[in-house]
Amino acid sequence: MSTTRTESPVRPPARPYSRWASLIVLCAGALMTILDGSIVTVAMPAIQNDLGFSRAGLAWVVNAYLIPFGGLLLLVGRLGDLLGRKRMFTAGLAVFTAASVLCGTANSQALLIAARAVQGAGGAMASAVVLGMLVALFPEPREQARAIAVFSAVGSVGATLGTFLGGALTQLLSWHWIFLINLPIGVVAWLAALRILVPERGTGLRDGADYPGAALVTGALMLTVYVIVGSGGRGTPATLLLTALALTLFAAFALRQAHTARPLLRPRLFRSRLLTGANCVQILMIATMYGFQFIGALYLQRVLGYDELTTGFAFLPAPVAIGVLMMSLSARAIGRFGPHRVLLAGLVLITGGMALLSRAPAHGSYVTDVLLPMLLLAAGFAAAMPPLTGLAMSGAREEDAGLASGLFNTTQVVGGSLGLAVLSTLAASRTDGLLARGAELVPATADGYRLAFRVATVVALAALVLAATALRSRKS
User: Which NCBIfam families does this entry report, sorted A to Z (predicted)?
Assistant: First the structure.
């Protein structure tokens, strides 16, 4: 193999300010896709009324985005290593922005769902390679910790602020603008990416152009996300059949990767204890946090009687705390105590916050029953996410950084979708059972949410135990 094919896929710029400018561009691009996950939620009733969606059909406004997004992350992450991560990132921004315009101008259900699917594909292309580019731009541990903290803070704050933007744009203008707002942002981010991000050479398609393997893993991941996000609309036999099919595709992909000469996904990647362990911990941690974000909002509205705007204001302390702690303390704490200890401290706080939420009564108080647990969860997430990201990426070789980035984003989608599906199903089942036995609506609803929070506490505790064992370094 020639020397030109073994050089680093991303070469850091010579000037420090160029690297931080690159970080801003990467954050801006990722922020669009992160906002899209929450900004649509508030506008769903308006979309339903305007386009005439049924209750079941309305779910596909979200699912049509999640399935290609979650299913393609691993593939496009690997393609970023082969073709060049800057090329994949800028192409993703272009696809996502163009699809956003189609979503914003959609006047039919079919057009909106199709455009959302294309938007999901563009979001995957832009998101999958970001962490790989980031760790290559900042190889020095302290600077890398700062960069990851900034990136994580932008993502965490953006996910929550999307609720405000969605409500404001829908109420003041129309639901179309939750998508059209991406046009100016996307164009500016795309132009800045072309100018600021450093050109790099991928390793070439001949180093990993396993097209049958790509089809198998993409189909398996898309089917997995489809099973998770759509499980509520199907019976148990159909869900079991689709799950078995997804597992069969994963098994066929693993078998092919073990025997093909040029695998798309090198098996050695999963021999890294740090990378594999960090992704498993993330699935559990994100499942817990999604339970708080969505079920916590339902508790405020359906139990405490808050309206949508008041609920949004009630959640404001979370992104503020996450942003402040990540930007000001995370990198310094990692530098002083090490990523493993900071991660464990964060997971302890998350477990404690969920345990407090599991006591939320039917006639609760926002300050004592919601705000205090929320601040513990926010502090825990701010502490845990940057070191977890750094540990996952440190377990991959530089030529696999795009693939590792795509894998980390994939487990985030799977963890969030799985947590939301399981916890919301448990809460609904408990509430329905109590109502069938004659319980009043509000106490039954609160009891269902408490069950979900108790299960989420166990999941958070499992993440803590796994992190304490699987991610322990020789120095800790």
Answer: efflux_EmrB
Angle at 286 between CA 283 and CA 292, to 5 degrees: 145
For residue 162 the two structure tokens come to: 């999307």
Q: What are phi and psi of 437, to 5 degrees?
A: -95, 5
Do 158 and 391 touch, CB atoms closer than 8 A?
no
Q: What pLDDT digit, counting tens, does each position of 70-113 carry?
A: 777 777 877 877 778 888 889 999 999 999 999 999 888 889 98
**SS3 for 336?**
helix
SS (H, E, C) 264-321: CCCHHHHHCHHHHHHHHHHHHHHHHHHHHHHHHHHHHHHHCCCCHHHHHHHHCHHHHH
- CB–CB of 415/281 below 8 Å? no
Q: How many CB atoms lie within 10 A of CB 473?
A: 12
> Quick one: which of 457, 459, 435 has its CA closest to 447?
435
Write down the architecture of domain 13-206 according to CATH.
Answer: Up-down Bundle (1.20)
Assigned CATH topology for domain 269-476:
Growth Hormone; Chain: A; (1.20.1250)
